[in-house]
Amino acid sequence: MNTRKLVVIGGDAAGMTAASKIRREQPEREIIVFERGNHTSYSACGMPYYIGGQVESEEQLIARKPEVFRKKQHIDVRIRHEVIEIDPKNKRVKVRNLDEEKEFWEPWDDLLIATGASPIVPNMENIEASGIFALSTLQSGMDVFNFLKEKKPAKAVIVGGGYIGMEMAEAFLSRSMDVTLIDMAPQLMATLDKDMADLILEYMTEQQVKVFLKEKLVKFEKNSGGSIKSVITDKQTIPADIVILGMGVKPNAELAARAGIKLGASDAIQVNKRLETSEPHIWAAGDCAESFHLVTQKQVHIALGTVANKHGLVAGINISGGNAEFPGVLGTAITKFKELEISRTGLSEKEAKELGVEYEAKTITSVSPAGYYIGSEKIHVKLVVNKQTQRILGGQIVGFKGAAKRIDTIATAISAGLTAQQMVDLDLAYAPPFSGVWDPVQIAARKFI
User: Fold this and answer.
1) How far is 125 from 84, CA to CA, in rounded Å?
2) Which of 45, 142, 218, 364 is catalytic?
3) What backbone torsions phi and psi does residue 140 show, to the nearest 5 degrees?
4) Residue 235 lies in a domain
5) pTM recorded for the entire structure
6) What do you get for the CA distance between the two ends of the chain, in Å?
7) Which residues pair with 206 in a beta bridge?
8) What CATH number corresponds to the domain at position 68?
9) Could you give the 3-state DSSP secondary structure of residue 181?
């Protein structure tokens, strides 16, 4: 019988995946989860689609409620409890009950830090104005939804042209709103190369989104009632009834740092492949922790739901006495804007150049499904390969129905160390409703042969 008490800080993907795995392996073990918010195990990635009306209720985004964890799995989940201090020496955490405004110390034998990441919010004039939102928790998504329902804003401004920016632009368009997107970068989607990002810009402009690049946010202007009135950049003033900040995220690692736990890539919590931190019996998983990049062979911080869930599983196996390693990441990601699908994995050409890798990059334009089949549309595929070995280093896809999930083939090829020739040789499925005889990813690979 395992009598070691486990305390988990954070009740979303990584934390609850780990807690659930440990409960399955060790039914008798005491597990306490402290979550400062109101919800556990929810899909933050689904929030733009809930806001846009493609998801009927916020309830559908919740995989498992706190009471389910408590009753069915006997995991002591305590929402509205914020851990404010970690004491590694005495193996205890200080917890604040947010409803009762009381603080207490909770001892532990093993500790898992799964505090996630927070959106970057600039410290500038009138940032507190009503109508300015940064999406992170389920509650923040609900707040946006309720604001739209109550205030019925007509003009939306999105700051940042990344994944949140794309998805929220679509959400606001679906509500027949006037949408403006600004970004200080020279392109949309910084994780893509500019030639691929320009395809997205062209389509977004066609869909009546006003996009302003190389434009820096300066401050906000609010009206006499304290609500957002306009967004002021270094080039113009843009009227706004609602603002979404999509300027990226930062790992919630300050709590760990104050406890003397070492930080690593992008100030995320430093971990080894077993998800162990620099302190014994303390683990970290999810958006607060770093990961190993399979191509660069370096530590990176990548905040994605897929990574968080896998982190949680590996941590759970190890905490419950098993032996597992997290193999690493490629930064594989996918999104869409209306009908346009977007995906990427591995190294971009820009990243390969910055790393000093000798590479070749090729881009093709093909169609999917087969050109003669009804509904066939363009698909753009870009591959980056090692110039000497011809091993595939990265890929990007921009296209229409059925285009973006092809990135999984490229991610698999990179993980397996395949060359461009071996990609061409893959026995991929073919039928006219899905693809031509040569799949677009293979057409791109043939460019290197």
Assistant:
1) 28
2) 45
3) -65, -35
4) yes
5) 0.94
6) 59
7) none
8) 3.50.50.60
9) strand
Token reading at 260: 């003397």
State pLDDT tens for residues 269-322: 999 999 999 999 999 999 999 999 999 999 999 999 999 999 999 999 999 999
User: Is position 328 within any domain?
Assistant: no
Q: Clarify whether residues 141 and 224 are in a common domain.
A: yes
Residues of the domain holding 59: 6-118+250-319
Averaged over 195-216, what is the pLDDT?
Answer: 97
277 found inside a domain = yes
User: How many C-beta atoms surround the C-beta of residue 358 within 10 A?
Assistant: 9
**Hey, is 395 helix, strand or coil?**
strand
CATH classification of the domain holding 403: 3.30.390.30
In a domain, residue 222? The reply is yes
List pLDDT tens digits, range 146-188: 999 999 999 999 999 999 999 999 999 999 999 999 999 999 9
DSSP result, 278-344: SSTTEEE-STTB-EEBTTT-SEE----HHHHHHHHHHHHHHHTT-------B---EEEEETTEEEEE
**Residue 45 annotated among the catalytic residues of the structure:** yes
**Total domains in the fold of the chain:** 3
Q: Is 128 exposed, middle or buried (0-12, 13-18, 19+ CB in 10 A)?
A: exposed
- Bridge-based pairing of strands 359-368 and 377-386 is antiparallel
Please state, in angstroms and rounded to a whole number, the distance separating the CA atoms of residues 253 and 267: 7
